[in-house]
Known about the structure:
Structural class: alpha/beta
Shape: globular
Distance between the termini: 37 Å
Number of strands: 16
Strand content: 15-25%
Amino acid sequence: xxxxxxxxxxxxxxxxxxxxxxxxxxxxxxxxxxxxxxxxxxxxxxxxxxxxxxxxxxxxxxxxxxxxxxxxxxxxxxxxxxxxxxxxxxxxxxxxxxxxxxxxxxxxxxxxxxxxxxxxxxxxxxxxxxxxxxxxxxxxxxxxxxxxxxxxxxxxxxxxxxxxxxxxxxxxxxxxxxxxxxxxxxxxxxxxxxxxxxxxxxxxxxxxxxxxxxxxxxxxxxxxxxxxxxxxxxxxxxxxxxxxxxxxxxxxxxxxxxxxxxxxxxxxxxxxxxxxxxxxxxxxxxxxxxxxxxxxxxxxxxxxxxxxxxxxxxxxxxxxxxxxxxxxxxxxxxxxxxxxxxxxxxxxxxxxxxxxxxxxxxxxxxxxxxxxxxxxxxxxxxxxxxxxxxxxxxxxxxxxxxxxxxxxxxxxxxxxxxxxxxxxxxxxxxxxxxxxx
Length: 437
């Protein structure tokens, strides 16, 4: 059987992994980033963004295959809300959750009610079978495309998965709901074999995926700092320490050994999900940390000569002007080396999606017209705050950062684009209100 796996625009790790699983199971597999099925008998769409469900090209591609009676399945992070996926796309089935074992059975046996971990249509209704078990952490090498070295995801050619699960409970995040809150780590030998395979295919910079990198080896409430340090050291031996990054870390998941290992064996950057300068909003987000912990974590990184980037979320439902100002004040106090700003996106299947459904429009900055300093730009309040925070952050980054007309337009377009996407996702929530939490 010929199978084409399509990962729109970028080769995600998950798409490469599933392709490798299918290859080792004896299928003739092609992995693509464009919407070209080739001569495939079956297409498997690896969808990593809610916006894929609203993408006109993807919808037309799936509809044309459906009209011809061609088989099309989907999997990936969007499978956390299968009713919406099946409602928006004319698919034959959705692989729900971790798909390494399920997808083999689906291709071998076809759609059936006794196959765990899928969603399919039955009598005009969407049926969802019981969850499949978690996939084993031992797996074949991914199917690595020849042109993998040409892509860039936040500066890296690829992110490799070192573990699954997260101890956090952030209300806007899918990771603990998709993979669970128990940490399941891969062996260092398996990860390094994969790193060597990527290097041999032309990857020049590689990053650790899996949420908080320092949770690698975590078990029974205990951090395994030794395992994390050995992992970074091993990756640096393969790639060179200027070609490895472990960017995503929780502020409450660091110690001096972890920070020193990041300094010695990586590009020397840490990416903290800071999100807000308001402790109330942090509690609403389920971050499990305070702004004092953020300040302490950034100070610790400075002591180890690490660069610090921070992500911030604006326009969370019920966020007040005063709480937004607290975020601006925190950026001023921290002076991060880089800042990433996003308006709050209510991904279906998260508590944030439930909160959006329960919050009156007049208390949700995504639906309140901005009447302040940027009123001439015709922005919603969440867009205005995102735009303003991008420019504000530039004032406090080390070094000179000038907001030119080009930078101004870039930030404005980014904020408007985020606003459009959030309203589109919110429309999905309102249409499928019973299936988003």
